[in-house]
Amino acid sequence: MKKGELRKDSILKTAEKLFFERGFDETSIQDILDALSISKGGFYHYFESKIALLEEICRQRCAVELERIRSELHSGRFNPVQKLNLLLGALHLYNREPPEFTALVLKISYIDGDVHFREQTRSYMLENLRPMVDDAIREGMADGSFFTRSPGQIGRIVLMLGYDVNDEASRILAENPENPDCAIEIIDLLSAYRDSVENLLGASFGSISLFDVEHLMNAFRQTVAQLKILEDKGR
CA 41: distance to chain centroid? Predict the structure, then answer.
């Protein structure tokens, strides 16, 4: 890694650590500069703002997740249905991120209302997931697991619907973190999405399994705890 890349990476890692410890709003660019002993010029050479810095942290996390998925897909261990389950599972923030980061994203995107940040992450994941979803659907049509008259578009529709569902699930959790019933509402929503995907692809009932209920409930509890910590820091 070149010197410039090392400096950029150190800014990203330090900022993420401070965002977790202090909260995004409570961490200033100056706090990051002080922690690294660098000048403002050294920071703005790489990032035009604090939100641009957070967007890059998210892109890197997404890139790591996408690389993990590609490796899994190329392992030869999965049939088309299993591949699609793996890919659609990546849409859900709760499935792929530590609770500290999930809570941070929920606060910024769904409580503070930074739509730009949310759309940046959505666009990045949709662009990178779609070719892999299309491939899994074509494989499933070849072996009879799926049937659709629109193989060139159905993957895009499944992903777009999945992100809208994930947005709604995130909004529900962000608005009702103290209400345990919100987790049930989210699970019902994800279950409806799962049924919709099966219908859209002509897949066998129960073949699409987007989440494990016990794992999801545990993730909700941990995320809510971290969200409360972030909220307390902001007071």
Answer: 31
Closest CA to 136 of 82, 211, 66: 82
pLDDT band at 235 (very low <50, low <70, confident <90, very high): low
Report which residue type is found at 156: R
How much helix, strand and coil, in percent to the nearest 5, is found in the chain? 75, 0, 25
Taking the C-alpha atoms of residue 50 and residue 35, their distance in angstroms, rounded to an integer, is 15
pLDDT digits (tens, 9 = 90+) for 156-184: 999 999 999 999 999 998 888 888 788 88
* Four-residue CA torsion sign, 224, 91, 126, 43: positive
Q: What gap in Å lies between CA 179 and CA 223, rounded to an integer?
A: 13
Angle at the Cα of 56 from the Cα atoms of 134 and 70, rounded to 5 degrees: 30
- 15: exposed, middle or buried (Cβ count in 10 Å: 0-12, 13-18, 19+): buried
pTM tops 0.70: yes
8 Å CB contact between 157 and 122: no
Environment class of residue 165 by beta-carbon count within 10 Å: exposed (0-12), middle (13-18) or buried (19+)?
Answer: buried
